[in-house]
């Protein structure tokens, strides 16, 4: 048993003796804590009925014990103790893609759970490819399951939601005030030079209903620094409606100190803005964050950092009505020895 976990269980037992048995059971069935868990592009679903948090990320064989490209999920009841991950989606070898499994998101829609995941195949060139700038198929596809635990099976044989000629990634589900679904996604900078955030209208079966529309360019943010010349990265959109009805978008890019977690707000409250770029939330390698609520109602942000060999970090978040702000890092949950404070412009 690690020193950290020994102290954790001793503290729990001294504070509330009746929790000792529960804590020891958690140690046996959920032996991991966030520092033990390699992850990238984390996504958490809080499933109320079994009071279980599912934390999704790309499959790592040394963690799941299962080979292959796919998505695995850690599980927890308290955001401290996590199970060894199980694979909830495996990429079939019969479809167009042969790599990726990035940025998994799981959303409830019409009684099912839908996995949004980005796949690619570098051997399938797209129109416009040149030897200097090869373009290849990359797109967000859907899987479906009856529960957040999966397993997820591909929808429409794994064809991307958006046109296969577009290099799309990090698709997320947004449902507008009329109940209409949209997929908001990042249009890859490899294809556009300056990456964009775009919105694709969807039918009830989450198939494309029409062409996508641009929401904003990555260069709109003063915190996004061009890479390799004039290229600007757009990553990881997530939409959040505040208590006063303001529409926010969390998204990531590259700043002067590496990967960043930044924020935008629609001035109209509508998906099509116009969008204003707010000060970023975190820098120094933090990014691809998402918001979720704990079972006691606390709004939380999870991000990964650094970009390579990343781990998950948790922050309490305050909904101010017109925006969101970070309150504090929950080092009691993520055990970060060098906590990173929110960015101050």
Strand residue percentage: 35-45%
Flag low-confidence runs.
5-25
What is the CATH superfamily of the largest domain? Glycosyl hydrolase domain, family 43
Radius of gyration, taken over Cα atoms and rounded to an integer in Å: 20 Å
- Total number of beta strands: 20
Predict the CATH topology of the largest domain.
Tachylectin-2, Chain A
- Number of alpha- plus pi-helical segments: 5
InterPro entries: GH43_arabinanases, Glyco_hydro_43, Glyco_hydro_beta-prop_sf
Keywords: Glycosidase, Hydrolase, Signal
Pathway: Glycan metabolism; L-arabinan degradation
Family: Belongs to the glycosyl hydrolase 43 family.
Account of the 3D structure:
This protein is mainly beta. It folds into two domains: 1-31, no CATH class; 32-334, Tachylectin-2, Chain A, CATH 2.115.10.20. 10% of the residues lie in helices and 43% in strands. The protein has a four-stranded antiparallel beta sheet with strand order 1-2-3-4, with no helix packed on it. The radius of gyration is 20 Å and the shape is globular. The protein starts with a helix and ends in an 11-residue tail after the last helix. Pfam families: Glyco_hydro_43. Pathway: Glycan metabolism; L-arabinan degradation. GO terms for molecular function: hydrolase activity.
């Amino acid at each position: 048993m690690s020193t950290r976990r020994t102290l954790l269980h001793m503290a729990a037992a001294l504070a509330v003796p009746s929790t000792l048995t529960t804590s020891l059971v958690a140690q046996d069935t959920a032996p991991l804590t966030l520092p033990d868990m390699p992850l990238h592009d984390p996504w958490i679903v809080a499933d109320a009925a079994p009071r279980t948090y599912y934390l999704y990320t790309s499959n790592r064989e040394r963690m799941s014990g299962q080979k292959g490209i796919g998505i695995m999920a850690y599980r927890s009841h308290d955001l401290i103790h996590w199970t060894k991950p199980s694979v909830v989606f495996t990429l079939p070898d019969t479809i167009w893609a042969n790599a990726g499994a990035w940025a998994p998101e799981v959303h409830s829609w019409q009684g099912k759970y839908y996995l949004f995941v980005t796949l690619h195949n570098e051997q399938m060139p797209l129109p416009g490819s040149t030897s200097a700038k090869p373009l290849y198929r990359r797109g967000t596809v859907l899987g479906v399951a009856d529960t957040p635990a999966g397993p997820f099976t591909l929808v429409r044989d794994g064809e991307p939601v958006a046109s296969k000629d577009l290099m799309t990634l990090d698709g997320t589900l947004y449902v507008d005030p009329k109940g209409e679904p949209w997929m908001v996604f990042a249009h890859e900078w490899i294809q556009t030079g300056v990456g964009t955030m775009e919105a694709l209208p969807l039918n009830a079966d989450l198939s494309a209903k029409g062409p996508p529309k641009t929401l904003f360019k990555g260069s709109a943010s003063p915190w996004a620094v061009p890479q390799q010349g004039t290229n600007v990265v757009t990553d990881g959109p997530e939409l959040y409606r505040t208590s006063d009805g303001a529409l926010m978008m969390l998204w990531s890019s590259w700043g002067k100190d590496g990967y960043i977690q930044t924020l935008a707000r629609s001035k109209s409250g509508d998906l099509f803005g116009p969008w204003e770029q707010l000060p970023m939330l975190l820098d120094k390698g933090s990014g691809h964050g998402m918001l979720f609520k704990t079972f006691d109602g606390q709004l939380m942000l999870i991000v990964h950092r650094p970009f390579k060999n990343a781990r998950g970090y948790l922050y309490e978040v305050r909904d101010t009505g017109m925006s969101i702000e970070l309150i504090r890092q929950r080092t009691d949950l993520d055990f970060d020895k060098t906590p990173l404070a929110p960015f101050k412009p």
